[in-house]
Structures are given as C-alpha cells and as structure tokens.
Amino acid sequence: MTKRTKASRKTLRAQTVTAQASAIDDAQLTSSDHASHPVPPRTPPRNSRPGSVQSESVEDTPMSHSSHGADRGFATVEAAVDFLHEELSENYRLQSGPDFGVTLPNGVDDERLDDFLAKSRFYTKQKRWKGIPKKPSCEKKLYQPFLELICGILSYFQFTTRQAHDTHARKLTHVEGVSNTALKSSPDIFISGTGDAFCPVSKLRNSSKLSSKPSYRACASPLEIKTDKNYTFDSNLIQIAVYARQCFIQQENRFFVYSAILTETFIQLFQFDRAGVMFSGKINIHIHPRSFVHIILTLASQDPVALGFDKSIHWRNSKRYLSMDVENELVEFEIKKLKASFLRRAIRGRGTCCWNVVNPKTKEEYLAKDCWRSANRTPEWELLEKAKGLDGVGQMIGYWEPGFSVGRLRGIGRDTPGFRDRDFCRVLLERYGKPIHQFDDRKKLLYALRDAISGHQNLWNAEILHRDVSINNILMGKKDAPVGNRGVIIDLDMAILLNREGSLAGVDFRTGTRAFQSMMVLRSQTNKPGVIFPAHDYLDDLESFFYVFCYICFAYEAPGKKKSPQPTLLTEWEDFNSNTARHSKLSFLTESSDHDLSPWFGEGVFQTLLQQMGQFVYDHYMTKDRRLKQPRRCLNDLTEAAHEQYAIFLGYVDEAIEKLEAMQPEVAPDGTILASGVPPITPPRSSPSSSKRPSNDVLEGSPSSKKPKRNPHAPRFPSTLSMETGTIDDSLHKLA
C-alpha cells in the first residue's frame, strides 16, 4: 500500500541499491515470457569492514543480520523492515531461471488453460485482461480489478479450498517476540486456504467455511499491488518479506512462502525460504497471459507441498500431528498445545522449530526439533550420537533426514553461482523440563545451572564445543532426576568438533545468541591491524553461562514474574551493535551499578555467586586481552587448563548450593513450605502523605545523594591483569 511503502522507505538506509522500474510500455517488453529484470549491483554488507573478505563460513553462524529479534519483539513494523533488509541483502537474493512458477499444477493442462483464455470473459480479443486500466492514477484503482480476475481464475479451475480477499484496508495481526501481537500489516490481496496443512477454522479440519477474517495463520500467499510508476524492486521486496515472515512465524510448518507483486502490466514472483529469496523477472501479463495464469495457480496451489508446506505436520479432528521415521518405522506423534514450543522468527537461516510431542500409543513425551543447516556443516545428529550417554546433555532418540534441501525446493543445484544451500533435518530428543528461566525454586534453579555446566564440560571432554549457551538451551531436568541430570544443555546446531579445521578460526561475533555472547566474541566485530582474536573456547561459553544467570537474576522479580520495564542493562546486552553490548557488559563488571536482586532471591548466596562468577569472567577476559597479538592457540591445547577452570567455576555453584541446602525452609501460615526459605513478595504498604520528609531521607542534590553505589556483583578488587599497559582495547581502559 502506498502510505505504508513511503513509511518503510524512510527507514531503509541510504546504502540500499534499488532497481528503479520506469513505466513499462508493451512495445518495450521482450518476446520472452520472462522479461529481463535489472539485477541491482552487489554492494558489501553494511557492517563489513573496508578491505575485508566475506568468509564462506558466514552461513555457519546465526548472528549475520537476523530478523528473529529480541524476546520483546519489534516495536514497529519499520524496525522489522530494517532487519529484513539486512537479512535479505544482495548476497541472499537470486534471480530465477525461465521455468520458475510456470509449471502447471495437477489437474490443469494446456488444453484447459487455452479453453479458459478463449472462453472466459476476462481475456479480451485485444489481448488484454479485462478491467485492468492501462494507466491507473493510483494503485487503488487496481485492487478490485485484480481481485475479480484472481477470483475468476480460482473459480474456473475449481480451486475450492482457496479464496482471494481484498485486504488492503484490513489490519492482519503480527506475532512478534513473546506474546507481542501489537503490530499489524495489510497485504493488498490475500489468498487464504483450508485443508490439513492449515490451522482449521474453529479447529475443525473438514469445515467448508472459509474464514471471513483473513489471518496469516490461514495464508496461502500474500500479494502486493503497485503501479508501474511506484514500483521499486528493493523496497517492494522487503514489504512482501514482512508478510512472508509472518506466514513462517504463525504457521510454523512452511518450508517456503510464495508472494508476488502485480502492476497494470507485469507480475513478478518471489519465493522466500531459508536461503533467502529467489525471484523471477517481470512478466508482461497481457502479452503472456498463460504465464500469468500459471503463476496465479502456483500462488493458490491446492497441493500443500507445492505451496511450501511440510506435509509431515498436519491437522486432523482438531488435533495436530508430526510424523517421522524412528528406527525404520513411521511414527505419528501428537503435538502438544497444537503449536511449536520454540520458533526462530527469521526467514533466512536455520529456521529452528521445536515441538513438544507425545506418542499416542506409548504416551511417552519427546522433543522434536526441525532445523535447516548449512550444507557444509556437520549434522547435529552426528554430534548427538557422539554425546550419547553424557550426563547433563540432551539425549537423542533418533533423527530423520528426508533429503530436502533449499536447492531441491527451488529446482536448482548446489553449485548455482551465488547460492548457499541448506539441508533439512529433524531430530527426536528425550523430553526434559522447562527452560531454566521458567524456574520455580532457587535450589532447583542452581541444580539445573550446575548440571548444565557440568554437561558442557562433558561435551568438551568428548571434543565438542557448544558455542551457543543461552536461556533457551538450558533445560530443567526430568522429575526426580539424579545429580548430573537435574539440568541439561541442548541444541548442538552451532557446536563444533575440537579437531575441526574451523575450530582454528578466531571468535566470530555472528556465533551465538547476542544477549549471552562473551565480550571477546562481541569484540571480534571490530577489527584492528595486528589483532589476532583467539578461537572460541570453553571460557567463552562459561562466560555465557554467567550471563544466563545474570539474566535470570535481574529480569525476574519472582518465578514467572518478569520486571516491567526490563532493566536497561539487559536491553543493552541484546543490542544489535556488538560494541554497545560489550561495553555494557564490561561496565557491569567494573563500574558502580544499581542492579539489585529481587528480594525473592534472598541476600548473600546469589550475590556472592554473581560476584565470584563475575571475577572469573573478568580475569579471563583480561588474560585474553593481553594475548591479542600472540599466535592463536589450538583448542586441543587448552584441555589441561580446562579441567582446572571448570572445577573453579563449578565450585562456585556447588558452594552456593550447599549454603541454600543448609537454610531452614520457612513455612507460611497455611502450612506451605516457601521456596528455599524465601518469603513471598508482598507489595509495600502505601504510607499516608506527609509534608515532612522521613528522617532517614537524603535531600536531593546533597553530596550523599550522589555518592556512587558499588556494583555488588562486580569483582571485589580489580584483577592484577587490569593494571597491565599496552593492551589492544583502548576503550576497555576508559571503562575499567
């Protein structure tokens, strides 16, 4: 829509290279069905450094410009647009060949297509589509004519499970972050669908009634209408990417999403998938009516597989099921709560989606995880096989590799120039407890943290480095789990083998989850002459465990009760700018702070643990800082020191656990034993207003009111390493 497009354009950065399309004259179009579209010249990514070479291993990492966003989601659609522009930059766009989108669906042949063009009222003898104005004054003049034309095509070919809607003035709800549904968007035309791939209307699979209120959950394909004059390739692509992203998020079972841009003279088809986007040239709809009908039928295909759905996930009788091969037997699992338990909210990338499932026959519960890995990466299931039997590590039951790849879905080869392929895999894991941030008891929280750290050490001893420790990758153990499995670490997507050649590479700011990345990983985005960044090692991951613990301590007032608003500190740690996140973490460790723990966590034990971990993290960061001009060490050379450092770090947690276990639990008046002896939080009583300030108040502006408060969680004294001179990071000394 015109107004929304103008708003979006303002947010797109100046470096964007766009392909401006002038008004298209029929005589200027080639005789080919696919008139050549001028591909914008390639430009380096915005955050690339002058003279830097883009590594072929970029796809190994999830942090390269993702629209997944923070837990709170994007505040505006324009904010999402900026990230989508980065995520779908020139390196991840590919112009298709001539066969893209013109294959006739099952049940439609050339004879029937010719009959439609000859006998329908829509295509005239003047070789134009009836009702489509030659020179519309604005795009609104095209909404109704195109809607009638598309509805006519669907009706003639009896696509009864698909319906086209005019949604240019309707606000379709977005899902952003955790339960954030404030944002809206409006595709101009919306093709909805029913069937076992779609969420059923009123949860009834066989309902023949199509929803009168279009929702992205029921979207087959979103379409956008422009005029030849206001068509702009780059901004229009990002606009329909906003719609496609919501299809991925809200439907959860899409391998790819089609979309299209229509003007009074041409149509352009797009396929969004985990490798980015593939697009056709601009096809003149009047000169090549057959191709136009082909594409409309593709956008509304009644075959869910042809439309990009994962056929192994389907609805039946108001329930949702997931099927996969387990030990050479096809098993149909029921999906609990009818939706994914975790989903990456980005288009390009791993597309990780987790499902809590139950075997209806045995009643046993599992976690199924779908992921699209880079074609050159070690499959996660191979690492999970190597991790079998390790305490504190999520255990695999089986895996399924059906042979799907993005290249296969696009109909192109892996060796296609400018294309980075991805392979689909599903692993079935044992079901554990909730993520660690959904804690309900202080001791259980520390038990889970302790055993997950121990599990990380077990992986390291098995020559596997995790590299993506986060609150979503640490789970509480099963009920009554023994010591060692009261918490487990999961998700080996980003893990590497210590003897892998890639393990010799330096830390990479694109590896991991931003809020929990180590300072050295964050620092790697800023390159300086002569700096040799160390390899990502176990100390970076132990630092991530520290930030997970900090997040829980500072983000929550009590179990299930997040602080509102969230502390600025945590917001800074999630900042897309790696320098902002790093400086915030370093300031937290070295400067005065008001980040006090909630009373629910009690006094002493948690503060001491934070201080001990913080000192550990700070010391090792400074040690690495001193070595930035020294040759990079191989990870295998760190094995001996690792045993000692894990023992120190785990010792801090064990000491905290011992102190908590020694405390006598308090009993509430109703006989309920309170969590680890911590009384419930009660709101403070509002005192009556008084004209007198309490005697212990400090007048604003007095010297004592401005006295800095020492961060209770920072190191008690500066590390001796901080006294060294000649370190590489100049800003570190300013902050320290």
From TrEMBL:
Record field: compositional bias (Polar residues): 45-56
Domain named Fungal-type protein kinase: residues: 206-398, 419-553
Pfam families for the chain: Pkinase_fungal
InterPro entries per the UniProt record, alphabetical: Kinase-like_dom_sf, Pkinase_fungal
Region annotation Disordered: where it falls in the sequence: 1-70, 670-736
Family annotation (Gene3D superfamilies): Transferase(Phosphotransferase) domain 1 (1.10.510.10)
Domain of life: Eukaryota
Compositional bias per record (Basic residues), positions renumbered to this chain: 1-12
Protein name according to UniProt: Predicted protein
Source organism of this protein record: Laccaria bicolor (strain S238N-H82 / ATCC MYA-4686)
